[in-house]
Design a protein that fits this description.
Blueprint lengths: L2 H5 L11 H7 L5 H10 L5 E5 L5 H6 L5 E6 L2 H6 L6 E5 L12 E7 L7 H11 E12 L3 E2 L2 H14 L8 H5 L10 E3 L6 E5 L1 H8 L3 H10 L3 H9 L10 E5 L1 E7 L3
Parallel strand pairs: 1-2, 1-4, 2-3, 4-5
Antiparallel strand pairs: 5-10, 6-9, 7-10, 8-9
Length: about 260
C-alpha cells in the first residue's frame, strides 16, 4: 500500500478524548520557524493552520499574520485550543476548509500530515493558496532527555512498552515524511530545533498524550506511564529540577505556481 494511501481515508480520531492533555503537554515550536515561514510567504494577510490540535502553531503564526484560520476535524481539540484574538478556530476536515479560493498566503500542518487524506488535502491546498503561496508541513520524532539513563527508559517505553500500539502512520513520522507524496515545488529550509525545559511531571504528561499510550490503556486497562514513573524515581525525582528536552524536526516546504 502506498504511503499516501495509508495516510488517507476517513478521519482517524486518536486525540479527541485527550484534547485537554494534548493542549497542556505538547511541546512548542521554535519562534524562528514561524519568522522564516512568514518571510517566504507571498503576503502576511492569512495563514491556514490545518489539523491545528491544541493551537500551538496557530498562536505562533498569529505573531506574523493579520489573521489565522485554524481548523481541526475534532470538536474537542478545537474547544480546548489556546485562544488568541487573531486566530479563528473552526471544526473542519482538511479537505473541506471552508476558506475562499486563492486567499491563503501560507498553509501549515504541524505533526499531523500522516493522518490526512493527502490527495484531497493537496487539492484543497491548491484551491485556497494565493499565487506563490506556501505549504509547510513538519513532524518531530522521539524526544531526547539530557540524561542518558532517562533516555534509555524513554526509548524502551516508546519501542517496547507501547511500541505494538502505535498506528501504522507512525512510520511516516519516523522517516520524516520523506516517503509521502509532496506535489509542490519544494524548497530547502534551514535546520530548526525543538527544545524546552520540562519537569518530570510535564514529561510524563506528554507521554500520556501519545496515541500509542492511549491505545495501551484501552486494551490493557492500565496506565503504562505509572510504571515508567516508578522506574524513573531513582534517576529523576518529582522534586528534581527541570531538564532539557529536545526533538528532531523534519520539515517539507512547497510553493504554489506564481
Amino acid at each position: 500500500m502506498a504511503a499516501a494511501e495509508r495516510a488517507g481515508g476517513d478521519f482517524k480520531d486518536h486525540f479527541s478524548r485527550l484534547a485537554r492533555q494534548y493542549a497542556r503537554y505538547r511541546p512548542t515550536y521554535p519562534a524562528a520557524l514561524f519568522a522564516y515561514l512568514a518571510g517566504i510567504s507571498p503576503g502576511r494577510q492569512l495563514a491556514w493552520d490545518c489539523a491545528c490540535g491544541g493551537g500551538q502553531a496557530s498562536v505562533a503564526l498569529a505573531e506574523h499574520f493579520d489573521g489565522v484560520v485554524a481548523t481541526d476535524a475534532s470538536p474537542q481539540q478545537v474547544a480546548a485550543a489556546v485562544r488568541h484574538a487573531q486566530v479563528s478556530y473552526r471544526v473542519a476536515k482538511a479537505e473541506d476548509s471552508g476558506l475562499q479560493s486563492g486567499t491563503v498566503d501560507l498553509v501549515t500542518v504541524a505533526q499531523a500530515l500522516h493522518w490526512l487524506d493527502l490527495p484531497a488535502f493537496y487539492a484543497e491546498v491548491r484551491r485556497t493558496l494565493r499565487p506563490s503561496g506556501v505549504l509547510a508541513v513538519w513532524t518531530y520524532g522521539v524526544l531526547r532527555v539530557e540524561a542518558e539513563d532517562v533516555n534509555s527508559l524513554i526509548r524502551h517505553f516508546y519501542a517496547t512498552t507501547v511500541g505494538p500500539y502505535w498506528p501504522p502512520e507512525r512510520q511516516l513520522v519516523e522517516d520524516g515524511y520523506r516517503s509521502l507524496a509532496f506535489p509542490f515545488a519544494e524548497l530547502t529550509p534551514p535546520v530548526f530545533a525543538m527544545q524546552t525545559l520540562w519537569t518530570r511531571q510535564q514529561l510524563l504528561g506528554y507521554l500520556r498524550t501519545w496515541s500509542a499510550t492511549a491505545r495501551y490503556v484501552d486494551e490493557v486497562g492500565v496506565d503504562p506511564v505509572e510504571a515508567l514513573g516508578t522506574q524513573m524515581d531513582p534517576l529523576w525525582k518529582e522534586t528534581d529540577p527541570a531538564r532539557c528536552i529536545s526533538w528532531p524536526m523534519a520539515l517539507r516546504i512547497g510553493r504554489a505556481p506564481a
